[in-house]
Records
---
Amino acid sequence: MESGYPVPVELAPYVNSNSIVVRSPGRINLIGEHLDYNSGFVLPAAIDKAVYVVVEKQDPPFYSLHSVDFNETADIPVADVKPAFGHWYTYILGVVAQFNATGRSVPPFKMAVYGDVPLGAGLSSSAAIESAAAFSINELFGYGSDRLQLVKMAQLAEHEYAGVKCGIMDMFASVFGKKGQVIRLDCRSLEYAYFPLDLQGYEIVLIDTQVKHSLASSEYNVRREQCEAGVAMIQKKYPAVQSLRDATMAMVNECIPQDDIIYLRCKYVVEEIERLVTGCADLERGDVAAFGRKMYRTHEGLSKEYGVSCKELDYLADFVAAHPEVIGARMMGGGFGGCTINIIKKEAVEPLINELLPLYKRDMGLELKYYRVNIEEGTSRI
Ligand code: ADP
Ligand code: MG
């Protein structure tokens, strides 16, 4: 299946009659934060920033990998595939290793990579490069893996070759994205459904705090434990509850003392699942304003109850909340830095950013960045 996306000029010199070009996008998540490990839902979408690869077979027994962005080439002997932590090509080797592990010894190939997903900004450029590698290798050698198998290979590549024990959302969104639609992914069953995101004169803008506090990974583990502790408390009375997905607010109120921090953590999760489900109904009705209000409440919950925000994220969320042209905003991702996701009236984007830039610089001492994004197709050949 070929799409209408153009080959980026940066990759044109690598394209010939034997090569395959694949585009795999970055992603956003509209609502449903910290729900994946609670067997809840997420609501991601693929964006108009992507990683592109050109691949072709070659005879010399190497994987010849070239990054246009880093202007660097690595020739990895076919017999020597192992993690290269910290290097851009580890993600590609990680994918090769997954094909090898499933009995398909990947023959030598040449791959050139170029992308415009900002690195490390929370748009999952790593999932984009992994998904592009998995899809293109599968096409080049005719392996016939389906999209979900490619997603799982990309996820394992991230676990084993980047050392990041991520969930499945990022790769899933990159590979399964659809133009103008968000994906409601059930993290328990992996069932998914598309919902239209008709923005009606509004636009999605990510505002990048330019900070990443080191608390992120330790607090992530603490939150997981707190959720498990909450489930254990509820299970004493309701043994069928396996995760917070199965819990209701009535159960939380009944089983967890309200002065226990675990109460607030669980309250956020149970309410966020509810917000996501009813938010999808908002989208089906075309009511972006109602959806946006839920995003603001998600931010409140993440900041005041779940405790994963930081002063920079709160600053950005508070700033836009005072502007009626911004109908929804929240921190996006694990927290303690990264971006906020905002739904802003198109013509208000530039003036709002121009107002915010100097204030953020004055108050936080940092130069913020922002990215306007559109929702586009997932991984495809171009
Ligand atoms: P995120 O996934 O949030 O963008 P990560 O740190 O997980 O951040 O992944 C970023 C890494 O992915 C980069 O440091 C680089 O190694 C790799 N990567 C992403 N995009 C490209 C690209 N266009 N070319 C080469 N490597 C890339
Ligand atoms: Mg990543």
---
Amino acid sequence: MLLELINVEVIYSDVILVLKGVNLEVETGTIVALLGANGAGKTTTLKAISGLLHAEDGRVTAGSIRLDGRAIQTEEPQNLVRAGLVQVVEGRKILPHMTVQQNLMVGGTVLASRAERERMIEKVYGYFPKLAGMRQRVSGYLSGGEQQMLVIGRALMAQPRLILLDEPSLGLAPLIVAEIFELVARLRRDEGIAFLVVEQNAKIALRIADRGYVMENGRIVLT
Ligand code: ATP
């Protein structure tokens, strides 16, 4: 098992109980969808896994989160990135004043050498030929779909084994959404990368997923 959540409880600001015992598994090289209404706790689940909860005064107060069987709930996010776990946060947080190429380089800072980063960049451009034609473009001017590709490409730069992908379809046209999900399926097939995808669009997420969970009010209610 690549990732395992066992009875995970999360509390914000010491008082707001948001996850109330979440159990969830992602096997190596699989795509798992996490579905549910607004406010169910999906984003909180991803942040608990990636270690980004601390930045929002949130804490895992019970249960355990394991990567390759090792408890990670107190790990720093940068160590988790080195261990192969990367989150693509909701809302396409690019560095808008930097070029496409610079945004990708930032994603590769955990790689050992510049040569390795350059090799990865070419690989990312192979998956996203559209971005290859825009290397020197200031990324703030890219379309929503292109920015979504850029944040996924930036995550790929760290050579992850598991990508946590938060609402990739948000505000995008159906054709672009289909293109992005096709790419996720291809990355799993060709690179063996596992994905935990949070989506409102259940239909498209379940089309490519091996398994899905439905979350309601801080609990998994259906697998
Ligand atoms: P959405 O689809 O709207 O993003 P979600 O399922 O991802 O919803 P979360 O963002 O995880 O849900 O939020 C779950 C609950 O936790 C909500 O009630 C939200 O108000 C609360 N919450 C989220 N972040 C914080 C925070 N930093 N401090 C306090 N409460 C928070």
